[in-house]
Amino acid sequence: MLNEVSFEDTCFVMPPGPPARVLIVDDDALILETLAINLEDNGIETETAESGEAAMRRLSEDANFDLVILDWKMPGMSGLDTLKAMNAAGLDLPAIILTSLTDQIFEESALATGAVDFVDKSRSFSIVLRRVQIILSGVRGRNSSGEDEGSGGVGEAGRIVVGALTLDRKAGRAFWNDAQVPLTLTEYQLVDELASKPGRDIKYRDLYNLVHGENFFVGTGGDGYRANVRSFVKRIRQKFKDMDESFEQIENYPGFGYRWREPE
């Protein structure tokens, strides 16, 4: 169940322009109301649907949404079924899967179907809000012109190649030896930040701020953010190692942060 919190200290400013529109799909009326109220309190317009079928009917009438939030486990069409139906209908809309099904196999299925993120319902709403804001602000495709401050090679617009790694910034996807790595949006951001600056040490705090925003705190103690970053990096490493046992590109600088190993 989503926890209600205050978001005044997330220090995230949406870009100028008309309010973003988000379609929320969940069979739980309380979650629908909680999500809608909190997103609207943060300047985001929302509409709700209580089933995948209702969502598809609404999208057939008006697909002018910036994001769709889908509950996975719903009667009738599941969130994954709804995402597949959106794909079949040619609806190119970013989608977040919001669920209590936290096993990695579900996450991988959601990402393989085209979801841009997979969020555990037990997380605080501030985490959900941050993920929504990142997508709406276009951070998943940041610097999509293909320009890059690091030493990674730039190919076609929005794609960066660093050794065996290819980053597609427009789609927010990472590929290792041409095979897609099943990264969530947050994990992709961290890989992009490290790999686009190979050989450069990135501080724990800078990596944490990239995910959560400045002045946002999680974990226990003054260094709780370090444990949070380590947890993310551990998951990222494992996903790469599942594809390539020899993967060792993410190096730790003890007490400071992480770096992406420079290609040989």
From TrEMBL:
<dbReference type="InterPro" id="IPR016032">
    <property type="entry name" value="Sig_transdc_resp-reg_C-effctor"/>
</dbReference>
<dbReference type="Pfam" id="PF00486">
    <property type="entry name" value="Trans_reg_C"/>
</dbReference>
<dbReference type="GO" id="GO:0032993">
    <property type="term" value="C:protein-DNA complex"/>
</dbReference>
<dbReference type="GO" id="GO:0006355">
    <property type="term" value="P:regulation of DNA-templated transcription"/>
</dbReference>
<dbReference type="InterPro" id="IPR036388">
    <property type="entry name" value="WH-like_DNA-bd_sf"/>
</dbReference>
<feature type="domain" description="Response regulatory">
    <location>
        <begin position="21"/>
        <end position="136"/>
    </location>
</feature>
<dbReference type="GO" id="GO:0000156">
    <property type="term" value="F:phosphorelay response regulator activity"/>
</dbReference>
<feature type="DNA-binding region" description="OmpR/PhoB-type">
    <location>
        <begin position="157"/>
        <end position="262"/>
    </location>
</feature>
<dbReference type="InterPro" id="IPR039420">
    <property type="entry name" value="WalR-like"/>
</dbReference>
<dbReference type="GO" id="GO:0005829">
    <property type="term" value="C:cytosol"/>
</dbReference>
<dbReference type="InterPro" id="IPR011006">
    <property type="entry name" value="CheY-like_superfamily"/>
</dbReference>
<dbReference type="Pfam" id="PF00072">
    <property type="entry name" value="Response_reg"/>
</dbReference>
<dbReference type="InterPro" id="IPR001789">
    <property type="entry name" value="Sig_transdc_resp-reg_receiver"/>
</dbReference>
<dbReference type="InterPro" id="IPR001867">
    <property type="entry name" value="OmpR/PhoB-type_DNA-bd"/>
</dbReference>
<dbReference type="GO" id="GO:0000976">
    <property type="term" value="F:transcription cis-regulatory region binding"/>
</dbReference>
<keyword id="KW-0238">DNA-binding</keyword>
<keyword id="KW-0597">Phosphoprotein</keyword>
<protein>
    <submittedName>
        <fullName>Two-component system, OmpR family, response regulator ChvI</fullName>
    </submittedName>
</protein>
<feature type="modified residue" description="4-aspartylphosphate">
    <location>
        <position position="71"/>
    </location>
</feature>
<feature type="domain" description="OmpR/PhoB-type">
    <location>
        <begin position="157"/>
        <end position="262"/>
    </location>
</feature>
